[in-house]
Amino acid sequence: MRRLLAAAAAALSAAALVTLPGSASAASSPAPEFDFSACPAPPADADPGTWRCEAFVSQGVLTLGDRTIPLGELRLTFSEGKVDGKFAQVFGELRHAPARIPNGFGASLQLKYGNYSDFLSNDERRGELDLYAVLRHPLLPKECSIGTLDAPLHSVVKDDPAVPMEVISQNPKTVKFGVVDTRLALPRATGCGPLSPVADHLLGLPSASGANTFKLATYVRFKPL
Description:
By secondary structure, this protein is mainly beta. The protein is 4% helix and 45% strand. The protein has one domain. The protein is globular. This is Secreted protein. Keywords: Signal.
């Protein structure tokens, strides 16, 4: 992941955490409202005229074995362009409101940025992103999480055939696509104190790679910088 959602998009770069399987239809897929307030500025040595901000609005689902957690809306922002003729990117922010865990006795899960992203897509994947998931409940310590900032979950997303690329608008440039990670591994919860075994049992942790699915259906809009 060193060259995040840049894709998508990536380019997860469009998008790439994110072509076109047919003609664009703006009417068929109305786009959400986009927010460019978190766009990071290009670096001081950026090549002029090559930089743009990408704002992602995604609806996500996390499946752990036989447990499915609707994640609701995720918003991700980053900038990309060239420095000395080479691709570069600067991460902006990841916003995610706590998502209620079904049958979780009031517990919720909130995704946080794990300090690494690579949104330059290639033939192998759409993008890569490090995350960790904070578990929230009145009885849980605020440090309770799956993964941590120092030991994040590493997600590598690929194109999801169920949500093919679609151009929603050319002006402003807006696209829609889906990405999926079927190899994400989730460790035991940490920082949960004496309730750690309860958190693990609730979510079926640890859950090995191949038993989980992380899916996003994403809209991306581009803004020149």
